[in-house]
Amino acid sequence: MLNKVHIYILGILGALLIFILAGLFLKGNADSGESASSSQGSSSIFEEVSNLEALDLGLIDGDDLREDNGLTGASSDGEASNKEKEKVIVSLSLRSIQDDIKIKIQNAQTQKLIANVDFTVTVKGKEKTLTYSDIDKDGIIYIPFVAAGDYTVFLSDAVTSDAQYICDKSQTITVSDTIEYAKVDIKDEIKTESEINVAEEDTKVFDEDETTGSSGKKTDASKDDAGAETSSPMDEDISDDAEDLLAQIEEETAAAEASKAAVTGASSGTIERPSDQDITSDPTYVAAHSGSKGIDVSKHNGNIDWGAVKNAGINYAIIRCGYRGSSSGALVVDPLYYQNIQAAQANGINTGVYFFTQAVNEAEAVEEASMVLELISGYSLQMPVYLDVEKSRGRGDEISVEERNAVCNAFLSTIRNAGYTAGIYSNKLWFENRISAGAFLDYKIWLAQYVDIPTYTATRYDMWQYTSKGSVPGINGFVDMNVLK
To answer: pLDDT: is 251 or 233 the higher one?
Structure first.
């Protein structure tokens, strides 16, 4: 009997023990779960802090972080999120010619300039850091008057309605206060006429003869000591009636000068003779006109039949390859340049080229020469490369004689350093008043003076443009005629 009681008590104690152990086991599991949950929460917090720091340091992509946390769709300002925008990697191309920096903002993949984007750059030098914007949004930022030294350029990211522009890296450049007359990369800056306002940019003066200095329209009396044109207060605001009256006075003045020249001898070079005497038989005339005959042409001469030109006995042609814009300073290729040079050479006509300058400093002149060198690459020239320096009613008219001399020297030196024969073209009036012609005797001199016999004596000349009203089969309308000495 006692043994059964002991067994019954031991059974109850064992059951209680098992119940207690089970309770402790369940409580331990609950505590473990809470601890694990707490640990997991702590890990999440630290992970978020790490992500924010990494985002701030640029180590992770903000769009990916938003997507990982379910933050996709429209941004707070209602625009499409950056994740939906095209990402364009941008590269910087830096160039310095003298005391300047030109920054080209390009698509890193295509190497094309990026236009119509509001880019901002930060330029850091030894002394200071400055910020510049692409104001005209053409993909180029030009900074003049930069002190010599090393500079680092950073481009800020930019966003448009459909794209993100992200710069791959900063660039460093050394600016020098001395200039090297050598070709620079200008390919992506050359424009066609479809990209500019032609009426404002191609403004070379064609409507009056300024080659003699005695046309009656503009005389040296209307110029200051530096040769720059002066104007009266009436020039800025004048009625049509007043313009007509002035034109009449100028015409009467020119007629009076012509009458005087007939008596005293034609100072302009036009010789008055009895009507029955042919001037072309005069020995002086014959000597002046002896030499190889050629033409110079541009888009203004239209489409040319170069086969007919060759058959007419024309030995050479100087072809305009381009010009710098009178207003914006854009570098523009003549729309008929390639057509003209290819057809002229195909018909066996010796060719050279000319470029109409509007450079206002040496750096711009090197750019112009570099453009010419780019355009003539691949063509064999038998004639020189000429710089055309004339009145344009544009930016190039405003510089001083000293500045114009520097421009001419920079262009010609760059052309010659590239292995080509270089020359300068202008008229008698400008060679005598606007250019120190004697400084360029190491180059070819191409004189324009529309007279029977040239009276220019300031320097020698190697080629003479004697008229702008020549006639040659294959060319519709007038064409410039030249004689090569």
So the answer is: 251
